[in-house]
Every structure is written in structure tokens, then in C-alpha cells.
């Protein structure tokens, strides 16, 4: 026990040192406890923003918008470029803080910071490509075109499992689009948020931009609610559970605000008889067990053709047996901790439920007692199910992979689509007809061939359908969600012809 306390204290000291080297002041203590899932101990206690502070932060962002919107987009990109430089310079420290607070292994934490740098680069290029279309006018001497304009204050609500990348997806794009940002990070990861906020403010100072373009508000759902209900917030971009989205969306709609929702997934991979099983096993293990099953795109359902299912399960069980579970700060560890006790309890409940529904736990699910009573390390579980039951259709945010079997591809695609969520999906096949049939048939926002469901690149639009919320972030033309469109008609003739040939008076 003493050892655990000492270990937690060491992690807390390390978090303070990292904040210091990232230039962030150690915050005033308060009731918000930043914990580390590595030991379950407290890293730092922080203050929660009171309603008046949230109100003031939104006010500052709204005021800053009035001048930021007038800065040319390529000049606005200078701020994002400076942010990217700071992220490159501090990549290791920021990644270590992600590991401390979210429990990601080093490689994944570094990858998450890399994703921030990548999206900054994308946004910088985008700043010169916020194109509108021009159309032929039906009237002589007229020009018809669309132009895109900054939207206003963007409220970003983010989840614990991508504590920095999701913020960057939103913020880098919103800033080049001319918007200002108020960020409500997960109450589980307030320190990484503080670090990002500090780097962005420093970038603003370095570039002579108004640091008020970015505001950070800390706290739980109550603080998030204030952002959701505030009419000065033009767009609420909310990432998290379907439950959260179901509360947020109608409230934003009721005030005619805009919502961009990135909610839960229940992602499936189909493995066809022709699949390269070596490749499939590698792809499946990373997607299902990586990040301890705590990615929105984590693989939760494996739909294997009956002819290869036994062989595949055997190979997966062997691969699962080799996964090292433990302290994510240690080299060689592939599976870090669950975020907290609640996640562990949900996993155990789902496993017990799966057995009650006729499931067979092939391996995993048990807790690995390593770094203290409040730290929750588990072996990823593989569970064979007789059918896609109610439980399988739910997202349990933990490393459980349910295995189902199919005979015909149509049946497999129906299983893939037979859940309320619609985020990510994939097929392993060497048969092009099957691959194309799957790409046309999957109802998800992401559909892959011969790779797993997780690990998207920032160049494509990211998001999902149905209860996943329908939002798109990051690459492609996702920027359009952060701007408003105006249709402009310019008459450069001396006549005033009306559209549709109408004669008036
Ligand atoms: P969560 O829904 O518990 O919390 C997410 C955020 O929403 C937090 O900042 C929280 O404080 C805030 N929040 C909760 N209720 C709110 C309310 N009523 N009003 C305003 N804000 C509110 O989710 P979590 O446990 O942090 O994250 C895991 C979930 O997020 C999973 O379901 C996962 O699939 C999902 N997720 C989705 C994506 C995606 O891009 N689709 C990405 C990451 C995580």
C-alpha cells in the first residue's frame, strides 16, 4: 500500500513537472480531481469553472470573434502553424501527459499528438482553399456564387479517450475558418487540456493574435450544459457517448444552434473465407485490444465466415495470450489500464450478461492486479456468441470482442448494420466483388477493406451515421460545418430582370 501511495505521488510530481515544461501554471486547487488510471491516484486537484466564469469565457470568445473573423484566412493559418511548431517541440511531454491522464501506451499517445500536428498542417493548407462555387445565372449580366463566412463561437465538448486529438481536429479547422473556440474537455482529462490551451495561447502571443480566440472551461456535464444552452455559441461540436448526444442535440436544436455530433460506435469486422488470415489477425487484435478497447472505433464485433471461424478464433486467442497488459509508461506494454472503476464494472457486467445469453468466454476479461487497488488493468476478452443479442448491440467501452458467424455475405452485412450506431466497419477479403458489395452495403461513416476499424487518417472526413450522430470532423470538406454559406447574386447590367422570368409591374 505504501508503495502504491509513493508511486501515485511520483506520477503526480511527474505531471506537475510536465505541466511546468509545457509552460502551464499549476492550477489553483479545487474539487475537480485529475486522476491517473495508471495507479488510480490523484495527479492534481483543480478548480471547476462556476457559471459566471463560463459566461465570461463565452463572452470573451464572442468579442474576439468580431476581429478574428476579419483576419484573412491565410493569415489566421499563421496561428495554427505556430501551434504545430509548439506541438512538434513538445510532442514527447504532451504524449507523456496523455499517458498519465488517459492511460494510453507511449506509441499511441505519441500518435495522438502526431494527429494534432497532422490536422494543423491540413488546416494550414485549407486556409487557402475555403472555396465557394460559382454557377451560371439564368439572368443576363448577373453573377451567381456561393461564399463561405466564419460562423462564430464554436463550443467543443470532448471525451476522455482522445483528450487532445479531437480538440485539435475541431480547433485547428475552426480557427482557420475564422471562428473562436470555447473548449470543455472531459472532466477526466483536465491536465492535457490545460497543456493544449497553454500552447495555443503561447502561439497566439508569438503571432500577435488575440489569445482570447481560445477559451478553456473546466468541469463536468454541468459546465458542458452551460455551453450547450448559450445562444452565443453558434456550433456545439460534441464528442462522447450516445447518451450525452441525446441530451445535447435537442437542446441546441431548440435554440436553432448548430450541432456536430461524434458519438459512440459499435464497430464490426467481417472476415470472409478468402481473407488473408495473418493480416486479419493483426488488424483485429490492434483494433479490438489497442487502447484497451477504449476507442470510439474499437472493434467490438467480429463476424467470421463459418468455414474459418474456429481457426480464426484459435489464432486470435493465441495472439491475445501474448498481449502484455500493464503500466503504459513501460516499454513493451501493449494494453494499458481502463480509465476507472466504472469502466471495469461495465465490462464485468457485460461479460456476465454475455454468458447468461449463451456466450462462451474464450479468453480474457479478468483483472490483472498490478499497480494498486484503484487501478483497473484487464486482459482483453474474446467471447463467442450464438447470436447478435441485445447486449452485443450495446457499446461497452472496454476490450470485449464478440465473435459471430455467418454463411452468406448479405447476412454478414445485415449483422454489421444491425445496431443503432454507425461509426466504423471493415471487411477482410481478397475477393473484389465481396469488398465492393460490403462498401456499398455498410451503413457506417467509415468502411474499410483489409484493415481494422480503428486508426483513421486525418485527410478523410471522420464520423458516423445513425446514433453516432451524423457529424463529420477532420479532413475532406468537414470544414463546411464550421462556416456559414451565403449565396450571392451580383447584377452588373443596367436592367433588373427577375428570376423565373417574372414580370412585375
Ligand atoms: P461522455 O459522454 O461521458 O462525456 C463526453 C463529454 O461530454 C465530457 O466532456 C462530458 O463532461 C460531456 N457531457 C456529458 N453529458 C453532458 C451534457 N448533458 N451536456 C454537456 N456536456 C456533457 O463520454 P466519455 O466516457 O468521456 O467518452 C467515451 C464515449 O465517447 C464513447 O461512447 C465513445 O464511443 C465516444 N467517443 C466518440 C468519438 C467519435 O468521434 N465518434 C470519439 C471519442 C469518443
Task: Walk me through what this model shows.
Belongs to the aldehyde dehydrogenase family. It holds the Pfam family Aldedh. 40% of the residues lie in helices and 20% in strands. With 505 residues, it is an alpha/beta fold. It folds into two domains: 49-263 and 469-485, Aldehyde Dehydrogenase, Chain A, domain 1 (3-Layer(aba) Sandwich); 267-449, Aldehyde Dehydrogenase, Chain A, domain 2. The strands form seven sheets. A seven-stranded mixed β-sheet has the order 12-15-16-11-10-18-19, with helices on both faces. A five-stranded parallel β-sheet has the order 7-6-5-8-9, with helices on both faces. The protein has a three-stranded antiparallel β-sheet with strand order 3-4-23, with no helix packed on it. A hairpin with a 6-residue loop joins strand 3 and strand 4 (142-150). The longest helix is centred in the N-terminal third of the chain and has 21 residues, at 106-126. The radius of gyration is 24 Å and the shape is globular. The model has no long low-confidence stretch (mean pLDDT 97). It binds nicotinamide-adenine-dinucleotide. The site of nicotinamide-adenine-dinucleotide (NAD) has 31 residues, from helix 8 and helix 9.
Amino acid at each position: 500500500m505504501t508503495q502504491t501511495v509513493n508511486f501515485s505521488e511520483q506520477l503526480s510530481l511527474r505531471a506537475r513537472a510536465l505541466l511546468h515544461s509545457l509552460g502551464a501554471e499549476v492550477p489553483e486547487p479545487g474539487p475537480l480531481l485529475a486522476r491517473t488510471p495508471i495507479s488510480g491516484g490523484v495527479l492534481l486537484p483543480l478548480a471547476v469553472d462556476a457559471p459566471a466564469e463560463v459566461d465570461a469565457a463565452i463572452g470573451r470568445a464572442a468579442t474576439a470573434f468580431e476581429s478574428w473573423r476579419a483576419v484573412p484566412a491565410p493569415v489566421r493559418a499563421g496561428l495554427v502553424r505556430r501551434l504545430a511548431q509548439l506541438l512538434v517541440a513538445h510532442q514527447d511531454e504532451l504524449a507523456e501527459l496523455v499517458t498519465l491522464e488517459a492511460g494510453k501506451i507511449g506509441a499511441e499517445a505519441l500518435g495522438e499528438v502526431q494527429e494534432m500536428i497532422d490536422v494543423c498542417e491540413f488546416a494550414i493548407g485549407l486556409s487557402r482553399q475555403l472555396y465557394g462555387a460559382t454557377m451560371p445565372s439564368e439572368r443576363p449580366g448577373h453573377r451567381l456564387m456561393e461564399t463561405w463566412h466564419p460562423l462564430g463561437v464554436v463550443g467543443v465538448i470532448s471525451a476522455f479517450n482522445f483528450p487532445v486529438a479531437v480538440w485539435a481536429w475541431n480547433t485547428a479547422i475552426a480557427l482557420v475558418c475564422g471562428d473562436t473556440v470555447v473548449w470543455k474537455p472531459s472532466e477526466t482529462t483536465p491536465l492535457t487540456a490545460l497543456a493544449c490551451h497553454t500552447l495555443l495561447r503561447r502561439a497566439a502571443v508569438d503571432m500577435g493574435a488575440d489569445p482570447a480566440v481560445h477559451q478553456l472551461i473546466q468541469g463536468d456535464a454541468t459546465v458542458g450544459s452551460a455551453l450547450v444552452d448559450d445562444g452565443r455559441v453558434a456550433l456545439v461540436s460534441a464528442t462522447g457517448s450516445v447518451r450525452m448526444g441525446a441530451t445535447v442535440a435537442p437542446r441546441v436544436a431548440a435554440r436553432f444552434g448548430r450541432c456536430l455530433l461524434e458519438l459512440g460506435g459499435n464497430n464490426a469486422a467481417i472476415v470472409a473465407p478468402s481473407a488473408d488470415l495473418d493480416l486479419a489477425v493483426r488488424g483485429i487484435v490492434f483494433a479490438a485490444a489497442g487502447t484497451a478497447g477504449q476507442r470510439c472505433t474499437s472493434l467490438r464485433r467480429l463476424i467470421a465466415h463459418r468455414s474459418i471461424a474456429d481457426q480464426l478464433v484459435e489464432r486470435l486467442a493465441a495472439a491475445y495470450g501474448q498481449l502484455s497488459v500493464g503500466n503504459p509508461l513501460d516499454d513493451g506494454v501493449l494494453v494499458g489500464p481502463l480509465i476507472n472503476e466504472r469502466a471495469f464494472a461495465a465490462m464485468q457486467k457485460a461479460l456476465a450478461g454475455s454468458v447468461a445469453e449463451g456466450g462462451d468466454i474464450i479468453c480474457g476479461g479478468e483483472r490483472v492486479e498490478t499497480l494498486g487497488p484503484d487501478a483497473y488493468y484487464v486482459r482483453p476478452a474474446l467471447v463467442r456468441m450464438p447470436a447478435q443479442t441485445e447486449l452485443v448491440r450495446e457499446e461497452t467501452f472496454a476490450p470485449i470482442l464478440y465473435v459471430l458467424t455467418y454463411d452468406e455475405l448479405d447476412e454478414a452485412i445485415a449483422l454489421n448494420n444491425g445496431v443503432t450506431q454507425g461509426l466504423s466497419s471493415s471487411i477482410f477479403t481478397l475477393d473484389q466483388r465481396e469488398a465492393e458489395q460490403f462498401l456499398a452495403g455498410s451503413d457506417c461513416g467509415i468502411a474499410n477493406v483489409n484493415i481494422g476499424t480503428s486508426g483513421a487518417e486525418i485527410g478523410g472526413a471522420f464520423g458516423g451515421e445513425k446514433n453516432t450522430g451524423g457529424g463529420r470532423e477532420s479532413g475532406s470538406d468537414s470544414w463546411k460545418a464550421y462556416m456559414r454559406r451565403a449565396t450571392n447574386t451580383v447584377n452588373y447590367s443596367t436592367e433588373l430582370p427577375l428570376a423565373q422570368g417574372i414580370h412585375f409591374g
